[in-house]
Amino acid sequence: MQITNNYSFHGELTVPGDKSISHRSIMFGAISKGHTEVTGFLQGADCLSTISCFQKLGISIENLGDCVHIYGKGLHGLTAPSQVLDVGNSGTTTRLISGILAGQCFESTLDGDNSIRRRPMKRIFTPLSEMGANFQCWDKESFPASLTVSDSGCAPFTVRGGQLQGIHYQSPVASAQVKSAVLLAGLYAKGETSVTEPVLSRNHTELMLTGFGADIRSYGTTAVVKPQPTLEGQKIHVPGDISSAAYFIALGLVTPRSEILIQNVGINPTRDGILQVALAMGADITLLNKRIVSGEPVADILVKSSTLHGITVEGEIIPTLIDEIPVIAVMAAFAEGTTIIRDAKELRVKESDRIAAITENLSAMGGSITATEDGMVIEGGRPLHNANIHTFQDHRIAMAFTVAGLNAAGEMILDDRDCVTISYPSFFTDIESLTK
Ligand code: S3P
Question: Is residue 323 annotated as a catalytic residue, yes or no?
Answer without folding.
Answer: yes
